[in-house]
Amino acid sequence: MKVLVAYATTHGSTAEIAEFMGGVLKERDLDVTVARVGQVQSVQGYDAFVLGSPIYAGMWLTEMSQFLEKFNEELVGKPVHFWIACIRVLEADGLDAAQHEYVHKPTMEKLGVKDLGVFAGKLNLDAIDWNERWTLSARYDGKELPGSHNNDYRDWKAIRAWTTAIRDQLAPA
Ligand SMILES: Cc1cc2nc3c(=O)[nH]c(=O)nc-3n(C[C@H](O)[C@H](O)[C@H](O)COP(=O)(O)O)c2cc1C
Known about the structure:
Elements: E1 2-7, H1 13-25, E2 31-36, E3 48-56, E4 59-60, H2 62-70, H3 72-75, E5 80-86, H4 94-101, H5 105-111, E6 117-120, H6 130-139, H7 156-170
Parallel strand pairs: 1-2, 1-3, 3-5, 5-6
Antiparallel strand pairs: 3-4
């Protein structure tokens, strides 16, 4: 079975999550490709998809929207697992908020996504430019100051658990 793990990213931390997921999937007899969404020319031949993006200003990245639009017909009807990385999930009501506000529900329904993965990401304020700083302070919709989440919060155990469930579904032991 051929699986495509495709990701969007701005600062690279989501790419690292995708690579890690690819490694977990490869523990079984699965033919796994990990690629940035913008570099995927064709999705022909893939039997399942694991798609992920960080959240910027309340939405997944444009490169993910473009990918979903471009390959919409090929994706529908195949197993699609979707995940997002963000900092809002670190807040008290964050998981619920992220699940409901950060994904476009009609798109999820159309793709038949049942298990949306929501993971804490990595924010490094030293690595972002002034434009991004402005976006973050003006558009972040949590209750806490985004600057209070300046760290690497990626929970590899949680990411592994979510991916393992997909691996076991696609290639039962
Ligand atoms: C300019 C900017 C805007 C962001 N907007 C949000 C947001 O609206 N909600 C949120 O939960 N996280 C937000 N984040 C946090 C990112 O989702 C998080 O840092 C992510 O892990 C970055 O992934 P990347 O390293 O792959 O680009 C934002 C980060 C930046 C730098």
